[in-house]
Each structure stands twice: as C-alpha cells, then as structure tokens.
TrEMBL record:
Residues 126-197 form the Transcobalamin-like C-terminal domain. GO terms for biological process: cobalamin transport; cobalt ion transport. Keywords: Cobalt, Cobalt transport, Ion transport, Secreted, Signal, Transport. It is found in: Secreted. It comes from Loxia curvirostra. It holds the Pfam family DUF4430. This is IF factor. One of its GO terms (molecular function) is cobalamin binding. It comes from the Eukaryota.
C-alpha cells in the first residue's frame, strides 16, 4: 500500500526480508516487489539499525541465510568490491542558507490542554532535532524536551514536561501536513516553510 511502502521506512528492511524468504508461499501479484524496492532505493538511510535490516534484502538475502554463509569464500574480497560506497555529497566550508520551519506542540489528552507555536530559523539541511533544539533555546518554558538515545536514533520522551507512557499508551507523534513522519527527529530534514506538529497521542 502507499506506493510500495510496507508500514514505514523503518519496517521496510525486515518486511522485504520476510517477503523474499517466503516468496514461494504466496502468489506473485500479492505484493509489488519492484515498487517496494524502489521506495528503499529512494531513501537515504542514516541509522545503523535501519541499514543493517535493509542491506540483506538489497542483496537478495535475509537474516535466515546467515547460518549457510560461506565466509571462507568471501574473506579475501574487500568490502568495496561487494557493495559500492555511496558518493560523498555536499560542499564543506560554505555556510548553508537559512530556512524557516513552523513548529507546534499540542496536548489535548492529559492535564491542562496546551498548544504552542513558534517559527524557527535553522540552516538548510538541518534535522527536526535541530529545529526542536533551537525552539527550546528560544522559548525553554514552552518547548523544552527530553529524549533518549536508541539503536534507531534519538527518541523524544517528553515535551513541555509531558512524557509519553507505555502504561497509558501515550507518545509524542510528529506530523507534517497531517501525515505522520516516516523518519525520526534525528534524520528527518524539514523544508523551508514546512509546518511540523508534535501531538501528544495514543496508540
């Protein structure tokens, strides 16, 4: 569904592995392999965990193949021969033009409802995490937040003193144009004029 997306961009690696490993158990037209892989090829993966899950599928394997790998046959091959390295992009040393990002936080679930809005200026190519950091610097009373590092990158646990809870099934959801972001705050890069919403939500 959604032009080849299976869940979100983070779940694609394991989903493709599972579908490739079980190919003989379903009809070929039950899922569009080429469309799903095109979504993966178009994405710039940054987190090591996401890369580790998508790489096996890109070479036509799954984690199930690990037990049968012949390591002796490949020990003399350099990693560069097995998979090409991506090109280095960007120009270093040149200041990036600033962009403006609209950022709002909303809670209608617990305690006293609140909605705060701020316009933040950051260098182009900045991540959402950088937007949040600048917002917290400019208005710490309203936009302070806490996060924890995970194998998938930084995870926002609390904004404006309100923390998500597994017990209450609550968390901070990030949206753009009403759609949930497919990436985390550490890798998502807002565009100039984009409105990012952080909404306290349930699952």
């Amino acid at each position: 569904e959604r032009n080849g997306m299976i869940g979100n961009i983070y779940s694609m690696g394991l989903a493709l592995q599972a579908l490739e490993a079980t190919r003989k158990f379903y009809a070929p037209r039950e899922w569009d392999c080429a469309q799903a892989f095109s979504r993966v090829y178009a994405h710039d993966y940054q987190q090591p965990m996401a890369i580790a899950q998508v790489l096996p599928a890109l070479v036509g394997r799954s984690y199930l193949d690990v037990a049968g790998l012949d390591c002796a046959a490949t020990k003399n091959m350099s990693p560069g021969r097995q998979l090409p390295l991506p090109p280095v992009l960007g120009t270093h040393g040149i200041p990036r033009a600033p962009i403006q990002v609209h950022y709002s936080i909303t809670n209608t679930l617990q305690g006293i409802p609140f909605h705060y809005f701020i316009l933040v200026e950051v260098p182009s190519d900045s991540t959402l995490l950088r937007v949040m950091e600048v917002a917290a610097q400019e208005d710490p009373q309203n936009f302070s937040f806490q996060m924890e590092q995970t194998s998938w990158g930084p995870y926002v646990t609390s904004i404006h003193g309100l923390a998500g809870s597994m017990e209450d099934r609550t968390y901070w959801q990030f949206l753009s144009a009403g759609n949930a972001l497919d990436e985390g705050v550490g890798t998502y890069k807002p565009q100039d004029g984009e409105h990012i919403e952080a909404i306290f939500s349930t699952y």
